[in-house]
Design brief:
Helix content is 14%, strand content 31%. The chain is α+β, with helices and mostly antiparallel strands.
Amino acid sequence: MPTTERGGKPSSLRYYQDGPPQSVDIGAWRLTVGGLGLRETTLTYEDIRSLPRVRENRRYVCVCNWSYRQNWGGTLLREVLKAADWDGEVGTRYLKQTSIGTAEKGTYQSTIPLGPALERRCLIIDEIDDAPLPMERGFPLRLMDFGLYGYKSVKGLAGIEITKDFELGEWERRAGYALDGEIQPKRYRLSDLRCHHFISSGGEMIDI
């Protein structure tokens, strides 16, 4: 299994192109959760780890047409929202993510539709293959919606906000990436299986 992400293009542009933070003080780090239908909440790493946990074997897909399947450990996005007293409303709401970033590089942001993310069991991960999430793959947390290309799932997560606006992040706009980020039917390189495979329907790759 790969230990770092590969391919010709990054999946969260600024973070991957310019590199992750050199370090994260996990004692000082917090995840802020807020927006429509939520109580403004700040969660520590241990708060996140104390929520109901899942371990799911699912396939990640990069916009540069490669993919791999691994075991992802963490908690459901739904559980994090519940910790902020989410009102349960989905409607036409969206989830805006913001990375930790650095003073030199700024932050990376991405917005995804809330309803489909919840239906697809979107995860907030802190482990890969039963090991802590490495810095280059998004320590301490990364949001993962497996029906979308990786550039829609922010590494080094620092904040999530429910909003009514569906908008491109600055670096998605610069790269010309699609706003919806949905995985498209096409031929992909399955790096874990060392083969190529054509999928005839979009969304999460479930059958291979």
